Amino acid sequence: MARWNDAMLDRLADQTQANAQAITRLEAKVDANTEAITRLEVQVSELREGQAMMMQIIMQQQSSIEALRHDTRTMQGDVRLMLDVLTRNYPNGHQGGQ
Question: How many alpha carbons fall within 13 Å on the CB side of residue 30?
Fold first, then answer.
């Protein structure tokens, strides 16, 4: 086994100091990454809330479209009936008198 001399001990101390500094830098990077992850998690949560709101809006729009389609069909029937009355072509097939 080699004997530890002053030069080896100095080199070991330097390496230990360099390792300690590297660990400190890595800890700072880990802290920065942790903060970045937290910010991203908040943004993802906000995006999910926005997505849920958009889905709700889309569902409401689809419901409104269906209601409009129903109303349009009803109005088409009413308009046909009015046209028949105005032209005296009654739905039962009889002609109106003049």
Answer: 6
Strands (E), the chain: none
What six digits make up the tokens of 42? Answer: 């908040």
CB-CB contact of 48 with 56 (8 Å): no
As a whole number of angstroms, the distance between CA 76 and CA 29 comes to 68
> Is residue 81 a contact partner of residue 91, using CB atoms and an 8 Å limit?
yes
- Cβ atoms of 78 and 71 closer than 8 Å: no
Q: What is the distance in angstroms between the CA of the first residue and the CA of the last residue of the chain?
A: 129
Paired tokens of 9: 């001990």
C-alpha–C-alpha distance, residues 33 and 82, integer Å: 72
What would the pLDDT profile of 1-47 be if each residue is shown by its tens digit? 467 788 899 999 999 999 999 999 999 999 999 999 999 999 999 99
pLDDT over 70 (residue 83): yes
